[in-house]
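Hi R.,

Here's the chain you asked about this morning:
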Amino acid sequence: MAVVKFIASGCPMNNIFNYVMRDEATERKLIDGVNCMPETALEEFKFVKARFGKEDGRQYYHIIQSFSPDDDISPEEAHELGMKFAGHFEGFQAVVATHVNKAHLHNHIILNSVNMETGRKYHQSRDEMLAAKRFANDLCREYGLSVTEEKCEYGKMPKWKQQLRSMIVWALFKSPDRETFIEALERHGYSVNWTDGHKYVTFTTPEGYKCRDNKLFDDRCLKCNMDIYFAMGGCASPAADDYLDFQTPPHRRNANMTIGNQLIFMMADIFRDRRKKTKEEIEQEERARNAEAAMGLLIAAVIVAAGRYRERYLEEQEQYRRWQSWQNSGPQLMM
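And the predicted structure, written out as tokens:
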């Protein structure tokens, strides 16, 4: 997985090359240039700016391409990826230095702000950044590495996210507990990073795409709600259909994460057998709607209620089984 960041560097261009090529961070074999020589990059950058009369304004772009420690990648492969990534910026000069002085390998890419062929200045627009990050993900897939999640908005989810969401809901439909849910997804090539101490669940698709639960625009897929679902017994619960049939309300058009608490409130109503809310419960829900901390307390209370709900219906099932057994074994009326 390569995380790409455009850094707002305050370092003068006269100094930035010495910084990224310093001996304590990298090796000479891990330093190269695209359309320039690393040793003379400063002069070459300046020559191009002077040639097109673009010596003012932004002088360069500093891009960092960081690789996950979990990826099996050598410094040489990381450097090769960095060179290919720098080639994405056609006609621009760049110096690529691969740093090995931290736990994770990362490339520093210094990009001239002026194109050597057209004289056009590079502008760091949102679309340009997204295109660069998509290209970086394509390179990672080519090398068998994991990829970062693509930014998306409500109503504009890529196909792989739609497929992931469908698989999660299918696994919920089949699973009475979290372990079975994870196993069901893993059998189909998905991996699930679900840690109790973490706020989010991270899913990885068979193609290597990573996605947090709150980026799927479906309340049923949120970690806090799935905690409630499995606390009540998952697919074995009488309330499973209510949960799985829930329709997430529409989000605003530019929303970039799942926003909504209606499913939590609906399940809370079910666990109290839809009796009238007490004053305290009404106040707790109102506080939860307006404060994240209060919402956390409400979720914890609903999880507890889900466990009690599960105990009740299991006890009712046991009582019914005992009654059936008594009926079957009792004396038969002779006609």
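Strands lie at 2-7, 31-34, 60-67, 94-99, 106-112, 191-193, 202-204, 210-212.

Let me know if you need anything else.
M.
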